[in-house]
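Record minuted for everyone:
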Amino acid sequence: MTTPEETSPPANVKPNAKVTAALVDRVAERLAMGMPLKIALAGENVTCAEYKDALRESPELQDLQDLGKRKVLENAYSILLQGDQAPANWRWLIEIVYKDVLGSQDEDFPKQKQTIFGFPEEILNQIRENAKRL
């Protein structure tokens, strides 16, 4: 038989009631737009540490957070794969990002000069051109 001390959480550990599924949904939407976590939490009366602790303690909340991260990547890929440079960007994804999925060896693909965050110069130039048009 267990005693009440064995079944109750320690007095100094309380669940964070401020971090709810609704809050995580709102933050995930902001993350999907590309906002950093600190900015996504602004005005929510929750610190980054509290938020991260709540996610660690709740797999359900972590799943909602992961959905937000996935949406960021989906948005980035959809932008990357549109426009005149889409074929070159697809090639870059296949050659650089997914080469292990295709089972290819490094020497099978031509080497490209890597630049900021590993993006080839031609993709960076296209991003710069697109930004000028805005």
